Amino acid sequence: MSGELGSRLSARMLSLVPAAALAVLGLVNAWTAGGAGVGIDYFQYWAAGQVIREGLVPNIYSGGAGPRMAEIFRERAAASGQKRYQAAAEFRKDEIQIASTPFLYALVNLSHSGDYETDIRRHRAVLLACSVASILFLCAWCGFTTEGTLLFLAFATWALVPLQNDLLDGNVNGIQLALLTLYLFVHRRASSLWISLAAGAVLGLAVAFKPNLAFIPVALGIYWIVNRRFGHLLARAAGAILGVLIAIGSSSLFFGSPSFWISWARTLRRLEQRFDVGVDLGNFGGARLIWDWSGVNVSPLLFAGLIAVLALSLWMGRRVAEGRWGSDLVDPDERGGCDAEFLMVGVGPIIPILSSGLAWPHYLVLALPLCIYLLRPRDRGGVYPWAVLAALLLIASEPALRALNLGGDYAIAAGMAAGSLLLFVVACLEAWRPEGG
User: HSE of 197 in the Cβ direction (CA atoms, 13 Å)?
Assistant: First the structure.
């Protein structure tokens, strides 16, 4: 008996040790590769924090604030002697683009020391820690084996270009991923009204941090309505409103006034026109690609069409569930906390990527929950795992395409958009026919 147990342990170690080694090396690779960047996105968040603390401009959201801030920090960077600081300031020499919410600036600048090198290292450490912890938790909830979790983490840290870009540029997608993971964590324990309100509050904070997550509550709302969970909808909506109010109140302490939220809202209305960038700079928004190819703005149609397809898939999924298990069933796909709300949280960030005119590669860090959900162990797999793996390969194809000189920027953008579209299609199939039935 002891010999059999020893054989099993040896066999387990043969698979566990290589997976753990790949994951650890992947973490080292991600940290090292991220450290090669100057943090062109983080620089803008960091500079905004400095400006707010010192009152260098009256309103960072005003039209002339960006160029003035660029001038100030170019001079400061030159005097600092820090090469990374100087390179970031040089990249933003014409304008520091201020478009994020006051809550984002307030939260990102919590660890502010005033030294750019120190602060960007701290920020990258937070991003990597948030991303890794989220992947580990999400894989565990979806029933991955230890080896499967480690291999997925290794893939994300070795090959996932969006995660590398998030660390290189010092954006905030790792933090957003952690907020979504926190929502799912609280959601799983929502056995009372108060916990359900708390889950909604986390969702409200996540959207107030960066509104590209706004389609998550839209997807969740459609799911709750289709499944007649109106009490659930009201509780989460009330919690979300509370979360937004908390974000406004806490960031107003940092800014000194809630009026900056009004200024931000005005900036948001002209965001795509103000920051009109092409595919050559990394933009792969679905509406932008179609505009470049046809000259037609289809963004509103894409938004409406994707929402309609998702709603139809959820409605058909309920009909399938009623036919198989009875009309009282509302979560036919619950498996270890990996339920239909998890699917909605996963698909929500994909909608603006496909339908807007502005999407950056690091946005696809937010596709990780959907990928984990669709790759989870299940009794009947269908074609979903292979389709998800194909989508991940398309999303991660930039290094290979550049090495082989195949198509340039448009090929890379088309690959990421195609991978995103494939994930959306599989998610809708999953909503329609759970468990690949």
Answer: 6
Closest listed residue to residue 413, CA positions, set 291, 273, 299, 268:
291
What is residue 97's three-state secondary structure? coil
Residue ranges in 81-192 assigned as alpha helix (H)? 83-91, 102-108, 116-141, 146-159, 161-169, 173-188
Taking the CB of residue 136, how many other CB atoms lie within 10 A of it?
17
Cβ(130)–Cβ(369) under 8 Å? no
Residue 196 lies in a domain: yes
- Among left, alpha and beta (phi > 0; psi -120 to 50; other), residue 320 is alpha
Which pLDDT value is given to residue 332? Answer: 41
145 and 281 both lie in a single domain: yes
Tokens read off for 146: 């230890």
Task: State the burial class of residue 14 (Cβ atoms within 10 Å of its Cβ: 0-12, 13-18, 19+).
Answer: exposed
Exposed e or buried b per residue across 367-399, where buried means at least 16 C-beta atoms within 10 angstroms of its C-beta: bbbbbbbbbbebeeeeebbebbebbbebbbbbe
Task: Check residue 331 and give its pLDDT.
Answer: 45
No. of helices (H) and no. of strands (E), the chain: 22, 0
What is the biggest distance separating any 2 CA atoms in the chain, rounded to whole angstroms? 77
Closest-CA residue to 15 (of 125, 130, 147): 147
Domain residues for the domain of 420 are: 99-436
Counting the structural domains of the chain, the total is 2
Q: Is residue 28 part of a domain?
A: no
Q: Which residues contact 252 (CB under 8 A, 6 or more apart)?
A: 102, 258, 260, 261
Identify whether 27 is part of a domain: no
Q: What is the pLDDT of residue 191?
A: 77
92, 103: one domain: no
- At position 437, the amino acid (one-letter code) is G
Question: What is the per-residue pLDDT for 330?
Answer: 41
CA dihedral 255, 242, 132, 156 (to 10 degrees): -100
In sequence order, what are the residues at sequence separation of 6 or more whose Cβ sits closer than 8 angstroms to the Cβ of residue 6?
Answer: none
Residue 238 structure tokens: 């009330």
The per-residue pLDDT for 209 is 98
- Number of C-beta neighbours around residue 414 at 10 A: 18
Among candidate residues 72, 98, 124, the one where a domain is terminated: 98
Our measurement of the distance from residue 337's CA atom to the centroid of its chain's CA atoms, rounded to an integer in Å, reads 20
d(CA 351, CA 209): 18
